[in-house]
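User: tokens in, sequence out, please.
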């Protein structure tokens, strides 16, 4: 594994772990940018399943697991910028240092990472060669995410103070270091107050901004020899 810092925000380094670049190759290798999940609140770049990583590397891919700044300390427009900046760095540095083919870069993400994978299809230019969103969010501003969840409301109710004890002012990239961040996520899902004061409402509002304020492109991605799907 090779670890590199792809950008720094004030004093916070955003890093990438690169796997599979140590094995020499006569031809440039395809690359996978892997984006972790965790509701945009939790998780970190080390969360890739080892067996999944091994299969990618054994198949000849260079795998690049990236940091991104986490909510709610960081809002979605800045998170999207992190993804874009990771691609810029990879395409500028990855060819020489990691032996990748800049025209064969795909994205794989899970859950919130799946949402960012789909977002990369809109925001990254030139577009990734492939997007694989595993149980990713399609509409993060919808009722399913901004209204109380019936399943999670069967859990013991958390107080606001307890839920927010792991939430601060400083931006961060490691949402797995403090397990209490999960409590904030669960509290958001079990909120029963006014929808106008729902803790996810601000995030949902911000999530609409990149799609409404940025000229978006419709791209068709082939998922098999017989099917295609579009991101608009």
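Assistant: Sequence out:
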């Amino acid at each position: 594994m090779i670890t590199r810092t792809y950008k720094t925000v004030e004093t916070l380094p955003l890093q990438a772990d690169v796997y599979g670049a140590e094995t020499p190759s006569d031809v440039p290798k395809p690359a996978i940018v892997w984006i972790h999940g965790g509701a945009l609140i939790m998780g970190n770049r080390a969360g890739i399943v080892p067996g999944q990583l091994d299969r990618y590397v054994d198949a000849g891919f260079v795998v690049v697991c990236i940091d991104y700044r986490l909510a709610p300390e960081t809002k979605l427009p800045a998170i999207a910028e992190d993804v874009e900046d990771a691609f810029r760095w990879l395409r500028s540095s990855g060819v020489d240092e990691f032996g990748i083919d800049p025209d064969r870069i795909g994205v794989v993400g899970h859950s919130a990472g799946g949402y960012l994978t789909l977002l990369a299809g809109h925001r990254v230019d030139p577009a990734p060669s492939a997007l694989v969103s595993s149980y990713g969010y399609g509409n993060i501003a919808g009722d399913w995410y901004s209204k109380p969840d019936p399943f999670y409301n069967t859990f013991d109710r958390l107080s606001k103070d307890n839920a927010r004890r792991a939430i601060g002012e400083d931006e961060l990239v490691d949402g797995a270091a403090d397990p209490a961040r999960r409590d904030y996520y669960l509290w958001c899902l079990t909120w029963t107050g006014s929808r106008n004061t729902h803790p996810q409402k601000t995030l949902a509002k911000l999530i609409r901004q990149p799609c409404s304020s940025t000229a978006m492109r419709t791209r068709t991605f082939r998922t098999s020899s017989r099917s295609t799907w579009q991101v608009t």
